């Protein structure tokens, strides 16, 4: 089953075409990363898939349904870049996560206990259950990001769409975030994420889609991370590449296994 299908998509703003003839798919249970330089069109692509920006040409299907007819938005959890600093709303972590249940409303509204369980399960998945009653403003940037993924998970989506989920996020939160995404995938979830640096997310990625100046430049294994290695035409493995030692600067002692 194809969860997202983008076929020959073109998208523009004010008559200026930003994405040209873009095609790729996300299969059920796959983790696909959209990579590319600043301004290459990654966010535009995500916004177009979510129906926030119109297509100029081409087709997008979601769960096998043309996007313009798709109504089952509760199947998609969207994690934006940031909670929005200074919103002035003194919401607690639990309240923010509970807002992810809203799309599950209407005549199929689940009982309150199911909502509470879903909120607690989602916070457990991202390692923040102990902060459930704290104002989100007291969390670090990385913990706020984990709160957003918990909000998306609480809605029990089939597809998570994440826009630069680890940008500016501390290393411990990135690890916790990657673990939560891994658990989501292991239960059959599909993931489409935009990233600059994959970091701890790298092992999760089934396929990378590299966007370069509005066109797909590479589909396949994620290119090597640093500098020119991230260029779209640079997709081979270097024989001299030295693997980074894992956990050298990211794992606080309480995350190191006892044996
Ligand atoms: N609402 C808009 N109106 C007009 N032009 C826009 C709009 N949004 C984005 N653009 C332009 O579209 C191009 C692609 O932007 P987009 O945000 O999709 O790139 P990106 O790859 O996500 O970049 P970044 O990594 O910096 O977030 C840029 O030239 C940008 O200036």
UniProtKB/TrEMBL annotation:
GO terms for molecular function: ATP binding. Pfam families: ABC_tran. Residues 1-238 form the ABC transporter domain. Residues 220-248 are annotated as: Disordered. SMART domains: AAA. Keywords: ATP-binding, Nucleotide-binding, Transport. Coiled coil: none annotated. It comes from the Bacteria. Residues 226-238 have a biased composition (Basic and acidic residues). InterPro entries: AAA+_ATPase, ABC_transporter-like_ATP-bd, Metal_Ion_Import_ABC, P-loop_NTPase. Gene3D superfamilies: P-loop containing nucleotide triphosphate hydrolases. Belongs to the ABC transporter superfamily. This is Metal ABC transporter ATP-binding protein. It comes from Paractinoplanes aksuensis.
